[in-house]
Amino acid sequence: MKNKSPLLSVFFFCLIAVSVCSSVVEAGPRSLSPPSADEGYTDVSIDKVISPTFSAQIANKWIRFRAKYSMAVPAMADLPKEYQDGWVRISIMDPNDVLSCTVNVVIPGAKSDIVSELKYGDVIEFFAYGEPIKTTVFERTVDRTLFIIDRIKKVK
Predict the structure, then answer these.
(1) Cα→Cα distances 34→31, 37, 50, 100, 114, Å
(2) Please, which residues bridge with residue 130 across strands?
């Protein structure tokens, strides 16, 4: 418990730095039609979701992955405009490595009721679409994948 506070402080500092120093360069709204069954999603490890290295492999695909819930994220300014109003953004983390985080996870407001029930560390199964976006971070254009959540299942 004692170590959680410094970790959270570092996380919040990084979150603020990315939000202040980021802007959206390019993104295209998509008409998303999720698979009709769970089998239509590609299972991926959380490592591929978190790491920008694998961004191209999961972009434009419907994926399923497990992660731990960290918190709701109020900062939306660095996201494409079409994902700023009526969306909920959350931070997730690797269940085995609390220092690995991503905040590029958004949920349509109509499907976000479960977020109010989640607690730090809850393991969640996400069904999502990997939307490729380009953002500017510290005056450098970066390819990223925004994960648009279709469904969430609480695992434990």
Answers:
(1) 10, 9, 21, 27, 19
(2) 147
Of the candidates 144, 149, 143, 133, the one whose C-alpha atom is nearest the C-alpha of residue 27 is 133
Q: How many domains are contained in the chain? A: 1
Do strands 123-137 and 140-154 pair parallel, antiparallel, or not at all (unpaired)?
Answer: antiparallel
Looking at the domain assignment, is residue 76 inside a domain?
A: yes
Q: What is the pLDDT along the chain (156 residues), one digit of tens a residue?
A: 455 555 554 444 444 444 433 333 333 345 568 888 888 899 999 988 888 788 788 899 999 999 999 999 988 888 888 888 999 999 999 988 877 777 779 999 999 999 999 999 999 999 999 998 877 677 787 778 889 999 999 986
- Structural domain of 91: 4-24+36-154
The candidate with the shortest Cα–Cα distance to 129, out of 44, 68, 26, 9, is 44
Work out the number of other CB atoms within 10 angstroms of the CB of residue 22: 18
Q: Is residue 29 part of a domain?
A: no
**Is residue 20 domain-resident?**
yes
CATH code of the domain containing 41: 2.40.50.140
Is 104 in a helix, a strand, or coil?
strand
Is position 89 within any domain?
yes
Query: To the nearest 10°, the Cα dihedral for 44, 46, 50, 55?
Result: -10
